[in-house]
Amino acid sequence: MRDSRFLAELTDSPLADWMEKLETRSGYVPIHIFEETKRVTIHAFSQEEACLIKVVYHRKSGERTIERFDVQSGEMMNRRTAGATD
């Protein structure tokens, strides 16, 4: 069965599920989605956490890189890469 959610169509269902959990748990709301041929970049902001996250989804491998930034300082707080099965 096809997942008709906009984000799932651009990326995949597991990433769309993960983003929905982030929104529910920490208030992250996507503010910008940039679609390219090989990847999709998502910027999301949480006022509760005072953080901006950048998620880069690589279409071919299903890998995603997540970077978390502090809004006050602009400093990167952490970065991690997850595979398609994580």
Task: Give, in spatial order, the strands making up the sheet with the most strands.
Answer: 1-2-3-4-5
Distance between the termini: 22 Å
Alpha-beta classification: alpha+beta
Instruction: Please state the CA-atom Rg, rounded to the nearest Å.
Output: 13 Å
Question: How much helix is in the residues?
Answer: 10-25%
Overall geometry: globular
In short:
Helices cover 22% and strands 43% of the residues.
Descriptive overview:
It is a single chain. This protein is of the alpha+beta class and 86 residues long. It is 22% helix and 43% strand. It has 2 helices and 5 strands; from the N terminus they run ααβββββ. It has helices spanning 6-10, 13-26, and strands at 29-35, 39-46, 51-58, 64-70, 76-82. It has a 5-stranded antiparallel sheet with strand order 1-2-3-4-5, with helices on one face. A hairpin with a 3-residue loop joins strand 1 and strand 2 (39-46). The longest helix has 14 residues, at 13-26.
Protein traits:
5 strands, 2 helices, globular, single chain, 5-stranded antiparallel β-sheet, 86 residues, alpha+beta
Fold blueprint:
Layout lengths: L5 H5 L2 H14 L2 E7 L3 E8 L4 E8 L5 E7 L5 E7 L4
Antiparallel strand pairs: 1-2, 2-3, 3-4, 4-5
